[in-house]
Amino acid sequence: KRNGEKTKMFFLKENKKQFTHILVIIFIVALMITGCSSSSRQEVSDKQAGQQLEVYTVGDSDGDWGYPTPWGHYQRGPGYVRMSYIFDTLIWKDEAGFVPAIADKWIYDASNNSYEFQVRDDILWHDGKKLTCDDIVFTFQYMKEHPYIWVDMSCIESVQIKGKNTIEIKLNTPNAAFLTNIAATVPIIPKHVWENVEEPEKYLDSKAVIGCGPFKLLDYNKEQGTYQYEANENYYGGEIKVKQLRFVKVNDQMATAALSNGDVNAISIQPEMAENLKDSGFDVISESGSINVKLMFNYTKSPFDNIEFRQALAYAINRQDLVAKAQRGYGLEGNPGMLSPENSWYNVNVEQYKYDLAKNAEILGRLGYTRETSVENEEGFWAKDGDKLSFEILCSPDLIRAAEVLKEQLKKAGVDIRIKSLENKTRDAKIIGWDFDIALNQHGGLGGDPNTMNKLIVGDNFNSVRYFENAELVKVLKEQSTAMDEKERIELIDNAQKLYALDLPALTLYYPTYYWGHDGQIPLFYTKEGIGIGVPIPLNKLSFVNR
């Protein structure tokens, strides 16, 4: 299962849970109020076929994802997507794989360990000035001096102009993920705008959003969490399908009503509403395996610095039960090797730590813990040297249900858990500062190039476990990143998954299935291996371009 599409359509079963009926009632009432029908939407769609839409509105429950420049957007995927509408890359990806962008041709020279890109000569920046190869050379030099969190430039030896409209990027070591993680991710910036900017993260001037992408930024409102773009009429890549593209903040509970009312054209929806929306004429698409919810252990302190202790906790967690209760069944059970069964690089021969309380008790007993019921320990929690096995779990509000299920499961296993819910930024700050016992974290990127394992294991970010304790694992991760032979790389990635699962610096609990509903006026799709380094959001800018 090394290739094939990850995107799937899901048709949900009826009567999943009691609260599903409540959501259905809300949905029906919304339809009654608006008088919306599939036939009326079809009439609108037919009328607008082949015409440029005036406004296309996307709903988002979080709203603000930062100023849409490379250094201004927030580090998570939606921030990168907001920025990508303005700034183009050398190449890009659509639903099938790599496609031309600023460069219309590219080739790898193995003898020189370099890539050559043929740059188009008809590209204009949003301010009307022409994009040249100098801008590309400048971008890479500037990002080496001012690191961009999404890209690791350490593999690049030099970037220079070779002949007319040709750029050579020479690498100091082979990089198997170069096209995905650099060529299709680095946003090219205009030299004439950025050459005198010394602190790019503080550069919020209107000129900072001059790019060459399909859209120009009209307005950004941090407080309201809204973005408004207008079509770049001089876009080299094709005619833009919408005059304006808007992002507005919409509460999760109002998502279905907002779509049925026509307040938004597309939005992430609750899984239980997918079948009803489809029956009403809306398009529904879904994806699993690219986003994970994982339990991070603070292995820098006791008792989490003991691998066996982490393994004992893994045996006490019923991941299938977590999917059923925390996700209402809409998701896949987590793989301790990180990559999901939907991933073409998934290794089936990885230790799974199937739910086993007897195994959990055996390990804890071997580590010197005892479990006895007493006046002081009436719940029968494990204890050692008189100290009850008790610790705090950090989570964000959207993961509170998962934390509650974990608390129930671990209590049954004799472990006391205290839940502390914090908003995402505060939780992320505590994770990066090692100020936690265990923490629930959720992020995407697992559907991209498998080099994402390096970013999430030895990378320097709040999604990474920053685990260097296993020298063999670190060595294998380094070797896979330079393996240009696919068979060799498969073996290395397989081994990395095994080693990671055995040491368990974190445990992937489940992969949520996410659903998007839209009115069909724009053919949204999931990008093969995700947008940029692997963002699993069906809002690829090419959806809005007639190619």
Order of strands in the sheet with most strands: 15-22-14-21-19-20
Name the poorly predicted regions. Answer: 1-49
Number of helices: 16
β-strand number: 24
- Biggest β-sheet strands, sense, barrel: 6 strands, mixed
How confident overall, as mean pLDDT? Answer: 90
In one word, what is the shape? globular
| Beta fraction | 15-25%
Please identify the structural class as seen in this structure.
Answer: alpha+beta
Rg over CA atoms: 25 Å
Could you give the distance between the termini?
Answer: 31 Å
Instruction: Work out the helicity level.
Output: 25-40%
Q: How would you characterize this protein structure?
A:
- The longest helix is centred in the C-terminal third of the chain and has 18 residues, at 486-503.
- It is built from 16 helices and 24 strands.
- The chain has 547 residues and is an alpha+beta fold.
- Mean pLDDT is 90; it is low at 1-49.
- The strands form seven sheets. It has a six-stranded mixed β-sheet with strand order 15-22-14-21-19-20, with helices on both faces. A four-stranded mixed β-sheet has the order 1-11-9-8, with no helix packed on it. The protein has a four-stranded antiparallel β-sheet with strand order 4-5-7-6, covered by helices on one side.
- Helix 1 (18-34) packs parallel to helix 7 (255-261), helix 9 packs antiparallel against helix 11 and helix 10 packs antiparallel against helix 12 (400-412).
- It has helices spanning 18-34, 38-48, 77-84, 133-145, 178-183, 191-194, 255-261, 274-279, 307-315, 319-326, 357-366, 400-412, 424-432, 452-457, 471-482, 486-503, and strands at 53-60, 91-93, 98-100, 103-109, 114-119, 156-161, 166-171, 215-221, 226-231, 239-240, 242-249, 266-269, 283-287, 292-297, 331-333, 370-371, 382-384, 387-388, 390-395, 416-421, 438-443, 506-512, 514-518, 545-546.
- The protein starts with 17 loop residues before the first helix and ends with a strand.
- Strand 17 (382-384) and strand 18 (387-388) form a beta hairpin.
- 46% of the residues are buried.
